[in-house]
């Protein structure tokens, strides 16, 4: 019997390695080589309910146990640096302060949707920190890294990954960044 996920609501989580067909190809490749992959679960969902608020309301998973991954582009002159920011769904990433400074950028903003999809190989609305380009920093809020259980994207809109925060903190390029998240409001 697998792990019991207290945040699953009405989801039916199964070991992620048993259902690599439910994740984007870059995510599947990362899971195949991830030491802690056995600690992750995946659950199929209605792709029309992938957005966090709708997902939580429909499946009964707590909003405070969901984490969003956003791709940020930092620019200095002609150079563009990308990073993933992972924060709880109840917060927002401090893109113009903390992230901009971490990327040593003059300007930082959310990467355009087409760029984020093309560069990650994932679907918009399903982008996840698992399987991102190796040279990208994965910036985690301390709350994400400390969470015992989280629901995150799977690289596609038709499923979600369930993962302990400490596993995300061990991903390639992962950094726990104090003050990364600000309360949404």
From TrEMBL:
Residues 47-171 form the YbaK/aminoacyl-tRNA synthetase-associated domain. SUPFAM superfamilies: YbaK/ProRS associated domain (SSF55826). Signal peptide: none annotated. It comes from the Bacteria. InterPro entries: YbaK/aa-tRNA-synt-asso_dom_sf (IPR036754), YbaK/aa-tRNA-synth-assoc-dom (IPR007214). This is YbaK/EbsC family protein.
């Amino acid at each position: 019997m697998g792990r019991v996920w207290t945040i699953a609501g009405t989801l039916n989580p199964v070991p992620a390695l048993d259902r690599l067909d439910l994740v984007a190809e870059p995510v599947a490749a990362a899971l195949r080589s991830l030491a802690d992959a056995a600690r992750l679960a995946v659950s199929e969902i209605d792709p029309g309910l992938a957005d966090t608020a709708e997902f939580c309301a429909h499946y009964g998973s707590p909003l405070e146990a969901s984490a969003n991954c956003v791709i940020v582009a930092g620019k200095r002159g002609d150079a563009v640096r990308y990073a993933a920011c992972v924060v709880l769904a109840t917060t927002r990433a401090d893109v113009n302060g903390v992230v901009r400074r971490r990327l040593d950028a003059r300007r930082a903003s959310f990467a355009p949707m087409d760029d984020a999809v093309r560069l990650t190989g994932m679907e918009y609305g399903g982008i996840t920190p698992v399987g991102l380009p190796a040279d990208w920093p994965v910036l985690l809020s301390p709350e994400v890294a400390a969470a015992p259980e989280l629901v995150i994207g799977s690289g596609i809109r038709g499923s979600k990954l369930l993962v302990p925060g400490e596993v995300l903190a061990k991903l390639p390029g992962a950094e726990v960044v104090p003050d990364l998240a600000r309360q949404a409001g």
